[in-house]
Amino acid sequence: MNLTLRVWRQPNRQTEGRIVDYKVKDISPEMSFLEMLDVLNEDLLHQGQDPVAFDHDCREGICGSCDLFINGRSHGPEKGTTTCQLHMRKFKDGDTITIEPWRANSFPVNKDLSVDRSAFDRIIQAGGYVSVNTGGAPDGNEIPIPKDIADRAFEAATCIGCGACVAACKNASAMLFVSAKVSQLALLPQGQVERATRVENMVAQMDIEGFGACTNIGSCAAECPVGISLENIAILNREFLTAKAASNNLA
């Protein structure tokens, strides 16, 4: 396939970016989207130009680092698929593809298509963990957990922290991400000790980072590559209100 790529180029955070058009030729339909970008960068290097910066790591749909906005959609046109697992057979010969970074004030652009998502790390550091010292690692079946609870916790834990929910939301809200992390630990017995402080601290940090408010549009869940459910946002709201009521801190 021969394609026209309209790529966001931005040298750094301080410099204003712009869309630049490139042509790529002889792209195999079996290539992944990132492999196609590798071809583009090889061509740019051969021409003595600066390659396009983009985030990637595992290329297996696990790490969540391949954050690209493709033709106006997080991770591209295929539902339930990360950018690295998106294949070029989803496009046609002669197509024009617009490729942009995540658009959110809380995700500043480092360079080109690479954005700084450390805000997510700071939210996790605020409470998205279990810090209680339990000694040695217990046997796998030592703490019995009902299967339906284990399944729900696992489904929440599948969040890969890519930020597609933020990019898809008109308010740049991080509620789906935060709710998945809160729900996962709130459902499990290991997470009960810090349950109240966890949700208060994580929501407070989310607000500090400047993410927008949730207005229940649902675009976050629609564009999530691993299918995190909106139900988790309801769980987060319940956990937050319960924690505030218990601490008599309803401000």
Automatic annotation (TrEMBL):
PROSITE patterns: 2FE2S_FER_1, 4FE4S_FER_2. Signal peptide: none annotated. InterPro entries: 2Fe-2S_ferredoxin-like_sf, 2Fe2S_fd_BS, 4Fe4S_Fe-S-bd, Beta-grasp_dom_sf, Helical_ferredxn, SDH/FRD_Iron-Sulfur, Succ_DH/fum_Rdtase_N. One of its GO terms (molecular function) is 2 iron, 2 sulfur cluster binding. Pfam families: Fer2_3 (PF13085), Fer4_8 (PF13183). One of its GO terms (biological process) is respiratory electron transport chain. Its cofactor is [3Fe-4S] cluster; [2Fe-2S] cluster. Gene3D superfamilies: 3.10.20.30, Alpha-helical ferredoxin (1.10.1060.10). Belongs to the succinate dehydrogenase/fumarate reductase iron-sulfur protein family. This is Succinate dehydrogenase/fumarate reductase iron-sulfur subunit. It comes from Hymenobacter polaris.
